[in-house]
Amino acid sequence: MLVVVASVSGAAGVSTAALGLAALWPNRPGLLVEADPCGGVLAARFGLPQDPGLATLAAAARHGPPLSGAAPFVQSLPLGLHALVGPGAAETAAAALSVLAHQPTVEALAPVVVADVGRLYLGSPAHGLLPRAHAVVLVTSGTVEHLHHLDTRLAALRVSTSPGGVGVAVVGKCAYEPQEISNRLGVPVWAHLPSDRWGAAVLSGRMTGPAWSRTRLAQALRALAGTVAGQPRPRPARPALEVVR
Fold it and tell me: 2-229: what fold?
């Protein structure tokens, strides 16, 4: 099962949402894959090396033997989950994603893979992941301009994402009710992610503490994870490779 988390404009908190979604996935954490072609931030935020990671996986997929598991490519995050970190350099990240986006390598890494693809700009190599996604979570600010920008892009995204589902997660204050947004955009609002400095600080590596899972942001992300996990599967799941723990 592949879940893509993205935005279409601005810095709407995609990395924070993707990390929380993977960490709070029902029953067991998902595998977080940092597939942002503009460069990754996880290694810097959590004091990790950039290898192994996305670039290592891309090199193995291009030149190596068939992959036998995710363990050689993932690292552990303090939140109790594994992550495939992206390189910080945009050129390296985009090249690695260009290799992986059009083959079934990413979704075969674990039973649930949450891919943070950053901003889905026109021509982003991350578009190659959309046709295989079980669900696409579009993270947006609740301001008029961000919702309007999302509205202009949704028709094309729904086509490229078929047969997966598309839903919206609205971040921060918003003057509109979820049903109003859904009626305008033509897709469901799966979550409202509140402004929560403590919860966001833990997910960005600035703070630690087991109580973070009780924050308002964590509660909203847990509910979002349950909603996405409950989406009907459009086709049989591809056999997955377990992360070695």
Answer: Rossmann fold (3.40.50)
